[in-house]
Amino acid sequence: MKLNVFYLNEDSNTSPDQLSEKLTNYPQNSLTNDSWPQIPVICTADFAIAHTGQHILLKFTISNDYFRSIDRPINSEVHLDNCVEFFIAFDQSDQYYNIEFNCLGVGKMAYGNQKAKRTLFQNSVVQKIRTWTKSDTHEGEFNWEMTMIIPADVFVFHQIQSFEGITAKANFYKCGDELPNPHFLCWNKIVSPTPDFHRPDHFGTIQFMPAQAELSSFK
Question: Quick one: how many helices (H) and strands (E) in the chain?
């Protein structure tokens, strides 16, 4: 699949909750279980994405989840919890970044060319990613949103002056490996016998649009 990431003209000091509200006006992209349909899935999830030139703005919206998250250390096993993830590779490389956050805002970030060979980032780098979470529980259903504000300088193996005009490979995920009903949702379909998000060969294409191509000009 291919996705255009539209420009959002906003000051970097805008609060995460305000940016989250603005992202509701951007296209909503579904995460599905098409990759592993044999695994029953109850929850639904989608995401919206934009950029400011210097930041990637990413909002996940999840419904009918089951709450189980732990206040873990940074760079720990957040995928065991209610977790959303964003993997991205620049320059047509097989080296990619994985960014993962549980719904308590505990993050993990690493870089490498395969699942078993990841370089974890310093805590101070992960903490540059601002997050905002909104949640509610209704009749046993856990519904939540997470907005990430990801600055260009966390991609430490690249010198990104601006996201404008960049083409990258990426995938977006929702998981919860230790929930009562474990699930593995993806944006771009992965072909593998068992769930495996670390498949850059199945990333989709994302195109960061120039500033003059704001979303309003395409409506």
Answer: 2, 13
